[in-house]
Amino acid sequence: MRIDAITLFPDMFGIVRDAGVTGRAHKQGIWSMQTWNPRDFTTDTHRTVDDRPYGGGPGMVMMAEPLIQAVCAIREDRARQHQPDAPVVLLSPTGRPFTQSVANSLAASTAGAAFVCGRYEGVDQRFIDQYVDEQWSLGDFVLSGGEIAAIAMIDATVRLMPGTLNHGDSSLQDSFQDSLSGLLDSPHFTRPEKLDSVAVPEVLMSGNHAHIARWRREQSLMLTLEKRPDLIEQARKKGLLSAADERFLTALKT
Ligand code: 9D3
Q: Is residue 8 in a domain?
C-alpha cells in the first residue's frame, strides 16, 4: 500500500516510517510512504503557503494553490508508477471520527490514501470542495496541525496489514477477538511471579484455560462497565454479549 502525505513538516513522518512495527513493515515493502511539501510547489520568492483570512479574524489560512499542485504531483507520480489513484483525506478537527473500523477499511484498500495535513487556522475552503474526498478527525481535542493525527491513523492502519505483525496465529486471534468483543482488554501480567509482595492472580497460574478465559472475560466486562459503559451498550446492540455475560453484568450492578 502506498501512503502520501502533504505536509509542511515531512520530518515528522520519519517516526512511523522507521520505528517499531510500522518501521519493520515499511522495510519489508508492505507499505510505502511519500511526503510532499506545499512549500516546494510555491512560485513566489518567499515560498508563501499561508495568507490572511478574507473577512478578517485571527490566524492564517493555508493557500489552495500549493496544495492543489501537490495533489496533482501525487496523481502524476502514481500514474507514472502504474499505481491506482487514492482518495484525498484532509485531517480536520471537524472531520468524521477515525475509528478501528475506518482503520480496517483503509488497511483493506489497495490504493491507500493521500493525507493532507493542515496547519494554521485552516485550509482555503475551495481546495476542500474541489480536491478533498474525505475529512477525518482523531477526536475532540485541539492539535496544532494534522500531522500527528495522520501519523496515528497510519500506525493504526499499517499494523492491520497482512504480514505486519509477526506473532503468527495468536496476534490474528487477539485482534480478531478484540474487534469481535468490542470490550476493553483484561489486565496482563508477566514475570516475576511476585512483585513487591504482590502476586499474579492465582487463576492465571492454574493452567486451567477455561477458567482463565472466563476470568479474562469477566475482567473485560468489569473494566468496560466502569470506564466505558458506552462500549457495553454498543456491544449489546451488536449482539456481542452472551447470556453468561449479561448475568455477570447484572450481578456486578447489585
Ligand atoms: C480556533 C479554531 N480552531 C478550532 C478549535 C481551529 C483549528 C484549526 C486547525 C484548530 C486546530 C487545528 C489543527 N488541527 C488539526 O489539523 C487536526 C485535528 C485536531 O486538532 N484534533 C483532532 N483531530 C484532528 S485531525 C487534524
A: yes
**For ligand 1, is residue 121 a contact (CB within 6 Å)?**
yes
Same domain, 140 and 79: yes
Whether 140 lines ligand 1, by a CB cut-off of 6 Å, is no
Residue 47 bears catalytic tag? no
Q: Is the CB of 149 under 6 A from ligand 1?
A: yes
Report the alpha-carbon distance of residue 6 to residue 137 in Å, rounded.
Answer: 16
Q: Read off the CATH number of the domain in which 53 is found.
A: 3.40.1280.10
| List 18, 40, 121, 133, catalytic entry | 121
In this structure, is residue 165 part of a structural domain? Answer: no
Structural domain of 99: 2-158
150-190 pLDDT, tens digit per residue, is 999 999 999 999 999 865 444 454 544 456 689 999 999 99
